[in-house]
Specification:
homodimer, 209 residues, alpha/beta, Helicase, Ruva Protein, domain 3, Dna Topoisomerase Vi A Subunit, Chain: A, domain 2, two-stranded antiparallel ribbon, 8 helices, 42% helix, globular
Chain lengths: 209, 209
């Protein structure tokens, strides 16, 4: 049998709590077995400044974090802070794949409407169909009226664009305006380092100065 | 003021627990602000399979993990499992910089003696002197008698080797045999990719076949 790579030592009979901690840390995205061991050691070293506060934050998150019943965002209140914020434009809904995309758009401070989190993306390869995503709740939000524009802010991947296409199709009969994010040269990007697809998109969508 | 890079969103008024969780995760070695956000989202998604167990493991670790009063190892018992294990050779002590180094040697299963964790390394640059490390406890372990060999398994860095040199000096009057790890070509290593220092060390320590 291959040794468990998350094992601190090969034949330790004690310290199971540490091994368990390393195993769980290794499941976090971005942490492999080696960095999980380093993280566990660091946590034990910084018991009062890091380990205890982190355990506390995890417990609080587990107890308090909810999924917004309107948009699928994650927050400690339901509806979430964005859905509950009366200053935000309810006539505009930005559809994103995941909560992380919502956070990214909020950090950029470009959008003052509401969101809708699909919770994934259509993918024939992974067997994800329309029923697996929060599409019906989007349709009923639109059907209630008051929505003027739906921004389809999917990732610029094949599956992302296919999902955006599908949603544009579904929404085409409802009278709302659908839109997509522009493709082009990233700000700060150098032409020499861009892929052909991005360059072609940027060229095709060129604008008069 | 520069925005806090660990902020999920720039102006969120709710979800402070999530922000706090991200800030703490970003302090782990190997996780930056971006991967901390991804890890937090992943934890929230996998509430029952990852978030709650991790909080649990952290609490247990905080409550149960101790530092061995003999060797400085981390374990749930004191003396630690290695110091308490009668099958291990008390006549041989392997001195390492950190607990992670002890774990690495245990995984390699090359050493059946006891350990001594210095808790750092001599460094003029960082202002770490002999009094900041567990050197006196090593000297008193040796002074008690019964120790035949002390393996100085410091890292092959300048500070590591300086520390090994210092310890060899301190131990030279006690009658114990000190030794260091061999330098050479790593197993599986290709000469073409090795640095000059390693190659030179491997050549100098060449052995008749």
């Amino acid at each position: 049998m291959a040794p468990d790579v998350t094992d601190r030592m090969s034949d330790s009979s004690s310290g199971r709590e540490i091994d368990r901690l390393i195993q769980l840390l290794a499941k976090l995205p971005g942490l492999g077995p080696r960095s999980a061991r380093r993280a566990a050691l660091d946590l034990i070293k910084k018991r009062d400044s890091l380990l205890v506060p982190l355990a506390d934050a995890l417990n609080k998150t587990a107890a308090q974090v909810k999924i917004c019943s309107v948009c699928g965002n994650i927050d400690t209140i339901d509806p979430c802070g964005i859905c509950a914020d009366g200053r935000r434009d309810g006539g505009s809904i930005c559809v994103v794949e995941e909560v992380g995309d919502l956070w990214a758009l909020e950090r950029a401070s470009v959008f003052r409407g509401r969101y809708h989190v699909l919770g994934g993306i259509l993918s024939a390869l992974d067997g994800v169909g329309p029923d697996d995503l929060n599409i019906e709740s989007l349709m009923s939000r639109v059907a209630k009226g008051g929505v003027k524009e739906v921004v389809l802010a999917m990732n610029a991947t094949v599956d992302g664009q296919a999902t955006a296409h599908y949603l544009a199709d579904r929404l085409s009969g409802t009278g709302v305006q659908t839109s997509r994010l522009a493709h082009g040269v990233p700000v700060g990007g150098e032409l020499d380092y861009l892929d052909d697809g991005t360059l072609a998109a940027a060229f095709k969508s060129r604008r008069p100065t």
